[in-house]
Design brief:
single chain; alpha/beta; Urease, subunit C, domain 1; TIM Barrel; 4-stranded antiparallel beta sheet; 16 strands; globular
């Protein structure tokens, strides 16, 4: 069994040694005298759990900067969907490889994705060594024939996912209530219950979505899902901006998880008033996401933490709102819990999904409060080493093969948009 010993690393203000056996943290102590296949001297470094990116579209790295400064609806209909329709397995493979590279470089070890042709994404994830929950996106546009096709495709992809590596989990990915019928949503909920699968859904992202739901269904988005009977602990909703107090209680009652995506919410002008405090007080598990690079432009979870905390303070005019500690938990332990992983914490028995932070940077000088510094002062470039499943994916900020990934992804992106 592979073993790894990390020596002299800063954890909770103390210098400790971490012994990893296989894919789990085995021991934490001082002056551990253990033999190991690899020993890392982590002097001048701090140890944190790997970040969990709760909502993204990995292959959309290929659209970074392609369609900026547009509202959500024309951005989707005029720019994104027409080009996504042209994407091949190879396009998605290299876009996902680029996403994995970017996430590794900024300390993410697990992500929840939504995209078509997930076999290509799964291949990229397997090769890059990350952990992922991959939801195959589906749309039926309220067309009964497409509904049946979506059911067949979901069943087929679920069977296909049985051959994915053990770091990859399959989930269901209905896009949104305005692109997926109630009939299909109910079928997906039943399928998820029968097979114990997560469901990953965009919901209540814009004011327009909320108003259209009232007109089309007679209910706000969360109440519509309640009427359909599809609220459950298996449901993870992305955005959740336009949700009132009663709806928050509904989400809490049914164990629904909510992913805050501050960068894309601001960039697309969707809204700023994410109700982090109210959700937490009611027991809703809030995790953090970047969204895809087409709407947030990067996959840096450290940047996402800063944006989420500062935005939460700004709209409330309250400097005590959304603290650094709360948002750090949202980016680590909360995300791991939502994705059913024993990760997000540094303790014996937990998965060895870890990052070493370089403390010899201006952002950590002085280091009165490490969590404050990483949330408010740093960015993804402070991550020196990344370990996932007990394996080293990046050391001294180098990821094997990164030059080839950058070159191929750039070439494919230009080819795609001009195809």
């Amino acid at each position: 069994m592979d073993t790894l010993l990390i020596k002299n690393v800063l954890l909770d203000g103390k210098s400790v040694d971490i012994y990893i056996e296989g894919k789990y943290i085995k021991e934490i102590g001082i002056n551990k005298d253990r033999e190991a296949n690899r020993i890392i001297d982590a002097s001048n470094k701090a140890l944190i759990p790997g970040f969990v990116n709760g909502h993204t579209h990995a292959a959309m790295t290929l659209f970074r900067g392609f369609a900026d400064d547009m509202p959500l609806t024309p951005w989707l209909k005029d720019k994104i969907w027409p080009n996504e329709a042209k994407m091949t397995q190879n396009d998605i493979y290299w876009g996902s490889k680029l996403a994995c590279l970017e996430m590794i470089k900024s300390g993410t070890t697990t992500f929840l994705d939504m995209y078509p042709k997930i076999k290509a994404t799964a291949t990229a994830v397997k090769e890059m060594g990350l952990r992922a929950v991959l939801s195959g996106v589906c749309f039926d546009h309220f067309n009964s024939q497409l509904t049946e096709q979506c059911k067949i495709e979901c069943e087929r992809t679920f069977r296909l996912s049985e051959d994915f590596c053990d770091r990859i989990t399959f989930a269901l990915g209905p896009h949104a209530i305005y692109t997926v019928s109630g009939t299909l949503l109910k079928w997906l909920d039943k399928f998820s219950q029968e097979n114990n699968l997560l469901i990953h859904l965009h919901l209540a992202e814009t004011e327009e979505e909320r108003e259209n739901a009232l007109q089309q269904f007679g209910y706000t988005p969360v109440r519509y899902l309640y009427q359909l009977g599809v609220l459950s602990p298996r449901l993870v909703i992305a955005h959740g901006l336009f949700i009132d107090s009663d709806e928050i209680k509904m989400l809490a009652d049914y164990g629904v998880k909510v992913v805050h995506n501050p960068a894309s919410n601001m960039k697309l002008g969707s809204g700023a008033e994410f109700r982090f405090i109210e959700m937490k007080e009611n027991g809703v598990n809030v995790l953090l996401g970047t969204d895809g690079c087409a709407s947030s432009n990067n996959l840096d979870m450290i940047e996402a933490m800063k944006l989420a905390s500062l935005l939460g303070k700004a709209w409330r005019k309250n400097p005590e709102a959304v603290t650094a500690e709360e948002i750090f938990a949202a980016a680590t332990a909360n995300g791991a819990s939502a994705l059913r992983l024993k990760a997000g914490k540094i303790a014996p028995g937990y998965l060895a999904d870890l990052c070493l932070v370089d403390l010899k940077q201006a952002a950590f000088t002085p280091n009165f409060n490490f969590i404050s510094n990483i949330v408010y002062a740093a960015n993804g470039s402070c991550i020196d080493t990344v370990i996932c499943n007990g394996k080293i994916l990046m050391e001294n900020r180098h990821v094997p093969g990164e030059e080839e990934i950058l070159e191929n992804a750039s070439r494919i992106a230009y080819n795609l948009v001009t195809r």
